[in-house]
Amino acid sequence: MPYHFLIASGGGPSHLGPTLTAARQLRDRGHGVRFLAREDARAAVEAAGFGFATWQRTPSFTPIAPAREGESLGQAYDHLLFGPAAARAADTRDEIDRTATDALLVDTIVIGTALAAEATGIPCALLSPTISLRPLPGVPPLQSGLGPPRTSEERAEVDAANSRFAAVMNEWLPMLNEARASLGLAPFDHVLDLFDRSARHLLAISAAFDFAADGLPENMRYVGPLLDNSDWTRPWTAPWPDGSDRPRALVSFSTTDQKQTDALQRTVNAIGRIEMHGVATTGPALEAAKLHAPNNVALLPSAPHDAVMKEVSLVVTHGGHGTVSRALWHGLPLLVMPMGRDQDDIALRVEFHGAGLTLPPTASETEIAAALNRLIGEPHFRVAARRLGDSIASEINAAHLVGEMEEIVESHQDGLSDCKTHRGVARD
Asked: Is 0.90 surpassed by the pTM of this model?
């Protein structure tokens, strides 16, 4: 039976891309899908053949986090998650009233839309397109810099970090409860209630790649990475000579501005110093004209990564979840140079699984060249990447997200049917 799904998506490739992939999977199963997102997502969504609506209300709130460097999560809570929650919830409720909706799929970056689902009695699944924002037992929280605990002392350190992370997040509870009150909903006792009361919390990351938790909340499921081709990439022609047996590298940093120009230039220079071919994609945030490349490196504005990765030996990246997952899917070892957001956490997982190396974005050309030579010369990196890639391929082929979304609708409808039956018995 076809259902009608509304997807509330955050902007930018790292969030819009996974939700578009989810939408295509649902459509392939015969379901109707439409989007509620930022206006700058309209072109990509409508080009993919999905209905589109955008936010109508301007969020109004008093930020809690100080606007200074090093407060990135706090500012995200203010300006993406909790600050706009009331406005996003009201817009979502309007969209639900306008068009038939059987369930919502909500990107956690616009988590306030889940409140509208609760207010209207529609089942909702939260979608995390990367590592879980909700702390998990035994797993270090985001931006803690910790690996999985191996000793009792490390376990205590991880537990303490999770407690601090949850306590800081809970500073935004009054802001969240204000949004709930605007919809006539009872207040939460803790911000984490928002994650745990949804019908599903879906992690679009490989379970094999993530750190293993002691246990998951009842509503949480891994559905594997949601990978798709970028709609802005240009056609690809391999730049290396035919018959060359040199190893090859793809260099791909963020599609947004993370001040990556110097790191990209040093990486390109490092490839120029060793026996290797390289291709570096600058993305929409950089101008290739501002960079210079040695003869063995091609600078391109963009390229279809799946096609490129079939021809290269390794990938150098900032550590975006999509790029890392795609590289592992192709069995490619990685050099990760994290520049913020969740990238340090992704890099920790790459190193933990033995699938690559990590350097700071300030690393010298010599350090980068040495790391590249290690990734080329030590086969265990490729073996580990291939092992993870096999797991990722299996998860992608299974398309677990579709089954989870269908199940929350069916469970909801069964519950409504049971209520009607009980009311009928009472009247008799």
From this structure: yes
